[in-house]
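Lab notes, practical 5.
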Amino acid sequence: MSAAISTAMLDALAAFPTQLAAYYGEFPASHVHWAPSDWTGIPSERFTAIEQLWHVHDVEIDGYHQRFRRILEEEHPFLPDLGSEALAQSRAYASKDAAEALAGFRAARERTVAMLAGLDATQLARTAVFEDYGPTTTRGLVHYLCSHDQQHLAGLQWLLGKIDATRSGIA
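Output from the prediction step:
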């Protein structure tokens, strides 16, 4: 592996806020709070479109920003899961504004990309234990973050598919 985070990874992370906004923009206003009667098969958490936005926002700031800080500053820290569903309830994601989530997420992701772009091989090799994932490195956390991004794009697409089936009267 190379010493630095690859350009492809950094580009993917940097492009995600635009992709997220575009996917969210596909939702009719009447369906941003819509939930299917059956969540079977969703590739992300069971969140409505607006809840998906706020989840990604909060995981970036309260999850990955803190995880990266801790793995870089502490010796082999334990990095806990945030408890996504409880967080969504306690922060009332369903009642929040999409534009605020998207703007806050974009700014947070810019900070993430800038920080990651400056890491050296020693920093990328630092270790931690990530709850539900096990042992990892800083570089591993970057991969998990990219994976998380893709899960939520897939979750939004899944919701759009369910909405289409419902609106077509076939579900």
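Observations recorded by the TA: The mean pLDDT is 96. The longest helix spans residues 138-167.
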